[in-house]
Amino acid sequence: MEFTVEQIAAMLGGTIEGDGKGRITMLAKIQDARPGQIAFLSNPKYENFIYTTGATAVIVSKQFVPRKPVTTTLIRVDDPYISFTVLLEEYHKLISFQRSGIEEPCFIGSGSRAGKGIYRGAFSYIGNNVTLGNNVKVYPHVFVGDNVSIGDNVILHPNVKLYAGTRIGNNCVIHSGTVIGSDGFGFAPQADGSYKTIPQLGNVIIEDDVVIGANTVIDCATLFGDSTIIRKGVKLDNLIQIAHNVEIGKNTVIAAQAGISGSTKVGENNMIAGQVGIAGHLVIANNTHIGAQSGISKSIKEEGQRILGYPAFDIKEYFRAYTVFKKLPGISHRLKQLEDRVYGNNHEQEAPTVSESAE
Amino acid sequence: MEFTVEQIAAMLGGTIEGDGKGRITMLAKIQDARPGQIAFLSNPKYENFIYTTGATAVIVSKQFVPRKPVTTTLIRVDDPYISFTVLLEEYHKLISFQRSGIEEPCFIGSGSRAGKGIYRGAFSYIGNNVTLGNNVKVYPHVFVGDNVSIGDNVILHPNVKLYAGTRIGNNCVIHSGTVIGSDGFGFAPQADGSYKTIPQLGNVIIEDDVVIGANTVIDCATLFGDSTIIRKGVKLDNLIQIAHNVEIGKNTVIAAQAGISGSTKVGENNMIAGQVGIAGHLVIANNTHIGAQSGISKSIKEEGQRILGYPAFDIKEYFRAYTVFKKLPGISHRLKQLEDRVYGNNHEQEAPTVSESAE
Amino acid sequence: MEFTVEQIAAMLGGTIEGDGKGRITMLAKIQDARPGQIAFLSNPKYENFIYTTGATAVIVSKQFVPRKPVTTTLIRVDDPYISFTVLLEEYHKLISFQRSGIEEPCFIGSGSRAGKGIYRGAFSYIGNNVTLGNNVKVYPHVFVGDNVSIGDNVILHPNVKLYAGTRIGNNCVIHSGTVIGSDGFGFAPQADGSYKTIPQLGNVIIEDDVVIGANTVIDCATLFGDSTIIRKGVKLDNLIQIAHNVEIGKNTVIAAQAGISGSTKVGENNMIAGQVGIAGHLVIANNTHIGAQSGISKSIKEEGQRILGYPAFDIKEYFRAYTVFKKLPGISHRLKQLEDRVYGNNHEQEAPTVSESAE
User: Fold this and answer.
1) What is the CATH number of the domain that holds A56?
2) In the predicted model, what is the mean pLDDT of chain B?
3) pLDDT score, position A348
4) I need a labelling partner for B144 at 20 to 30 A (CA). Which of A232, B36, C197, C240 fits?
5) Which residues of A touch C195 (CB under 8 A)?
6) Are C195 and A253 within 8 A, CB to CB?
């Protein structure tokens, strides 16, 4: 990016004290800033830096009164922190979408077409009959299989792999190493103990506004014409496993290393913490919060639950039970003492085996 | 693919009603099918679609009697669903192995040779002294290190990475992002608290008929001449960790995100569910079924067990114990009440600490 | 590598019996060795092989007295096993760093510069303003983003991905498929249930002597100027998740599939076993050992603890409690019997619900 101080002040609705022509190419912390950079001062603890900073400009409050001479240009705004955040978001958007054009060598098959503002990095591979919208950024080492379609404003970070037939909506970001559309894990046992591969012929559909982290895997659906579906607004972290025919409901958030088994339907606005495992063919109600490392072996029918454990149940009850779990050796000892007292020391009822106990 | 209706009817042993010359390039569901596609009708619920379908041909039962005029061509068979499945498998095989030839640019080192029907995708990299059998499909961005040998009919999906010395048998499929032969995790602690890397000099051997999912990692063996071994017919899902010197027995199936630690030998025909962890240097008997998220800290000697938990034990006993675990707060309360009754309210034997209890 | 027997004997301080001019290109086990290879004999069980081996040379003890004629050349040393290990380490170093030069096509942006002994594999991608030290080995399909800096003697295995701004020290090894600097998982909930992406503007710093396994992910810090930090000497295994703003202390070792949530600070010399999960914003004391699959939900303040469980506590106490957990059905049964005896068979105090119990 490159802006003048005047352009930035206009963007923030701020007023300038000093040279409005200075050129800004970067943001920085006030203690680190150098010429060409812009910083902000919000917390009074950092005030001293404004008298020595190398920054070309500093965003300050309208109320800020310097106690010493200031050589940097000031941009005065209502809330310097919020204004800096606005700049950061603008900067991030610029950086994210700044790449365009085609780096050679890269590969594109026949019948594929792309909108405006496309970037195709060196060593990226696009198969046949692929459709890319506007502002699609295909970083180096990305693989886009045949018949894939991708909407507008999509970023495929280096090394994303999209198997043939994948469909991606608008405004999606997919991070490095993530694989979408690999074969579902389906094998039919044979009489001799071996397994025959069940052909995996469906695809994956990713709706709008989905963000997917790095090295995550989403398998395609098994049957021809079926899809594994990630609904609008879903956010997936790194190293997540989404099996064949899964559906993840709108605005659900899943943290790193969680795994969802085949054909499970996860509702909307769920929060699924790290390393959670969900078994196959379940339905998880909307607004379910699942604590880290939990195992889900049955469908969750009631909305809005907070659960934990393996298998998971109400999180408060889990912690109550776990508190007692930690004391089990003492409890076992106390029970034995009580038996000794009640039955006398040589009683025989002490230890029914587990299989005898009537559970 | 492209077949005539006649060719497909011959393949299925079916009889044609209508135009046998129609060209089929794709399979579809009857409700979605368009010209050039073939569908099937099995479930009577879908019968109405056959009168309006755009399909060039529809596979129907020999017994099917239309209630209205049909414009599409019919192929009559004994069981339309099974016939369609045959077509799907044929289609899948064709699709999987259809790529051949060499896309440029791609890289091949000196002394490497390949059989017939090879595909080497753009940006694939094959090192020195590599041997590839017939019908090996090396997709874009695959890396094959020096001295690797690969059998016949092997598919390496985009971005598979094979470190130097890896050996792969026949009829294997490896999905995107999987890494085979990376260094085992071995470090020798030094007096100053740092660690020295133990050179990892073995390799990985993958036998015939093995399928490996996406973003899985299999480390090489530590010692020179030793191998991490994946036996014939093993199926591994996505994001699995197989450490150095592990051996996975014939026809064992491992679900996503499971991890097997160094030097453990897993028997034949095991079923290991998702997110299971197995400690190092263990032996797991044949026909063991390990439930999801279980932790295995000791060898399993008896064959045919079903286990769960951390550490895992008999799955039925685990669930019985877990049922009581959920009620622990109540049990703790009941024990206290009983103590009050038996000892009187001011007794002192209530709470021996854990360390005092004679376990 | 290629050495004469004389050169190897000199390296090991050994004496030669036989032809010192023989050329060695490879190490092997004595039972497998062929011409051009060197083996060793330490365990008397393998003595017979020395009379038939194809090896060009065999390392033996000074005390070794052949019982039959030997045709291979002998190198006599104090301890053949240790000498062979020295050769293995030397061999490993040679192999690791042997690649140099530039394979075409590869990509390098403007303003980037590299030291001596560099290797840039085919299809590797180096962005703008990148700094590489001496002996940096950039394997095929590696992506190095803009403004990355890398020290000396660093190996980036095939397909490592370094996002813009990553900084890597000296003597680091990063295995295939590992992603460093991807966006932290940060989203701000909106009134309509959707989430807005929080820009992730920090970077990742990897200090000296760090080894990272395959398909691991380390996210960048959230705020501009902040870093996720992996300290000197840390060893990370495969498929690990390190979230934004995490810091991993010096010489800490983390096994496969573990995950550390955002902003957590892990101390020095920790040992974190496989599949462990650590929640966000915690501080873990130095010298903590965390058992496999444990979940850590609170900071660990006391150094030197050994913990296990979910949530984790003292490992010995965990196993004691777990031993009783397995017997819970029996304990529940015994408690009921005791109640029957004490209260009589028709008492009503048997089953207070969990919510009634005063925990």
Assistant:
1) 3.40.1390.10
2) 93
3) 56
4) C240
5) 233, 235, 251, 253
6) yes
Please report the pLDDT score of residue A350 as a whole number. 45
C107 and C88 in one domain?
Answer: no
pLDDT for A46: 93
Task: Examine the domain organization and report whether A344 and A289 are in the same domain.
Answer: no
User: In this structure, are A222 and A204 located in the same domain?
Assistant: yes
Q: How far is C327 from chain B (nearest CA, A)?
A: 7
pLDDT at B167: 98
Q: Which of C161, C241, C328 sits opposite A177 (nearest CB)?
A: C161
Q: Which residues of B are catalytic?
A: 244
Least confident residue range of A188-202, B194-208, C165-179, C334-348: C334-348
Hey, are the CB atoms on B275 and C274 less than 8 Å from each other?
no
Q: pLDDT (tens digit, 9 = 90+) per residue, B93-115?
A: 888 888 999 999 999 999 999 99
Residue B294 has pLDDT above 90, yes or no: yes
CB contact under 8 A, C255 and B330: no
Contact C327 A354 (CB under 8 A): yes
* Residue among A179, A330, A332 whose CB faces B214 most closely: A179
Task: State residue C358's pLDDT score.
Answer: 34
d(CA A330, nearest CA chain B) in Å = 5
- Contact list, C239 vs chain A (CB under 8 Å): 215, 239
Closest partner residue to C123 (CB to CB) among A123, A269, A327 is A123
* pTM (two decimals): 0.91
Does the pLDDT of residue A354 top 70, yes or no? no
- Residue C87: DSSP 8-state: H
Average confidence (pLDDT) over A124-135: 98
| DSSP classification of residue B183 | P
Q: Both C137 and C206 in a single domain? A: yes
The total of structural domains in chain C comes to 3
Residues of B in contact with C287 (CB under 8 A): none
Q: Mean pLDDT, to the nearest integer, of A99-128?
A: 97
- Residue of C161, C162, C353 best to disrupt the A interface, most CBs of A under 10 A: C161
Q: Which positions in chain A touch B335 (Cβ < 8 Å)?
A: 331, 334-335, 338
Where does a domain end: B62, B96, B130?
B96
pLDDT of C346 reads 64
Does C141 lie in the same domain as C217? yes
Are C230 and C329 contained in the same domain?
Answer: no
Position B280 scores a pLDDT of 97
Residues C306 and C341 in one domain: no
Residues A91 and A118 in one domain: no
Find the CATH number of the domain harbouring C137.
Answer: 2.160.10.10
Catalytic annotation present for A175: no
Q: How distant is the Cα of B65 from the closest Cα of chain C, in angstroms? A: 52
Q: Which residues of A touch B332 (CB under 8 A)?
A: 324, 327, 331
Instruction: Tell me which residue in C122, C274, C353 faces B125 most closely, judged by beta carbons.
Output: C122
**Does residue A7 surpass a pLDDT of 90?**
yes
Chains in contact with B, counting 3 or more C-beta pairs less than 8 Å apart as contact: A, C
Which residues in chain C show pLDDT less than 50? 349-359
Q: What is the pLDDT of residue A195?
A: 94
B158-161, Cβ contacts within 8 angstroms, sequence gap of 24 or more: B158/A125, B158/A143, B158/A145, B158/A161, B158/B121, B159/A141, B159/A143, B159/A159, B159/A161, B159/A179, B159/C141, B159/C159, B159/C177, B161/C141, B161/C157, B161/C158, B161/C159, B161/C176, B161/C177, B161/C214
Domain carrying residue A328: 322-358
Tell me the per-residue pLDDT of A319-329, one tens digit each, with 9 for 90 and over: 999 999 999 99
